[in-house]
Amino acid sequence: MTWNGTEVADLKRKLRTRRRLGRMGLYLSAVAFGVFAAFPFSWALISMFKTSPDLYNKENNPFWFNRPPTLDHLRLLFNDTHYLGFVRNTLVVGLVVTLITLAFALPTAYALARLRFRWGERMGIAIFLVYLIPPTLLFIPMTRVIQFLGLQESLWSLILVYPTITIPISSWLLMGYFKGIPMDIEEQAMVDGYSRLQAIGRVVLPLMYPGIVAVIVFAFTLSAHEFIYSLAFNKSSAMKTISTGVPTELIRGDVFFWQALEASVVLVALPLALVFNAFLDRFIAGFTMGAVKG
């Protein structure tokens, strides 16, 4: 079968049109998903500056300001609540819990993944099963433990309890990353004169970057979002984190301070989103980087 010049040109034109339509469909899908994902944040950003008559009037346009915006709800958040204290407590607890989690999960995962001993695999499964126990079954006995140690109304109560949740799943997660790094790299470093600790610190851990970042995100996020233990251990406003402080102080009986609630969400989500986007490229690069070249 032979093709003349006109038929070849028509075929190329159809292929170019098909590629353009496919690319356009991909871009439109991405834009639609972006709008869908950003809608709650955009709604919160607009609502935090709305006056109450503007927000509660069903006839008003919910996506814009029908009355002049106001800063009264931000003043309520900062002046009538301990919001800045909630943020500080959340940062302190999250950072300390993350450091404790890494300090215990890294050596645990390395031992279970690299050092062969009789009960290693069963211990790994047992560690993972510990994470599956619902916190709602443990907060009552944990409260008795905290009372016995005299840590109620203290951030140390959360710093002591949260690692019992974060360490098991972080160890299980890091085991997979250690198993994905060939032993040849570590053994070659030891042949070159490094001790085992030096080989781990200078060769293995840099390749563990995506796993370490995942553990940091998981531990900090859980510490910031956890509600039951934080509510049971700390009743005073000075010791509350964002997860308990915001709802308990901005929901008073049947009165919901919606604009202030939305403002508290935006002020926390915005910097976290910026930090995540700053590390996103390196995080993806860590997943796609090859461990062995050859």
What secondary-structure arrangement, pairings included, does this model have?
Elements: H1 5-47, H2 52-56, H3 72-79, H4 83-114, H5 120-131, H6 139-149, H7 155-161, H8 163-180, H9 183-191, H10 196-207, H11 209-225, H12 228-233, H13 242-250, E1 251-252, E2 255-256, H14 258-288
Antiparallel strand pairs: 1-2
Helix pairs in contact: 1-14, 3-14, 4-5, 4-7, 4-8, 4-11, 4-13, 5-8, 8-11, 9-10
Walk me through this protein's architecture.
The structure is a single chain. The protein has 294 residues and is an all-alpha fold. It has 2 domains: 5-70, no CATH class; 81-256, MetI-like (MetI-like fold), CATH 1.10.3720.10. Helix content is 75%, strand content 1%. The protein contains 14 helices and 2 strands, in the order H-H-H-H-H-H-H-H-H-H-H-H-H-E-E-H. A two-stranded antiparallel sheet has the order 1-2. It is flat. The chain starts with a helix and ends in a 6-residue tail after the last helix.
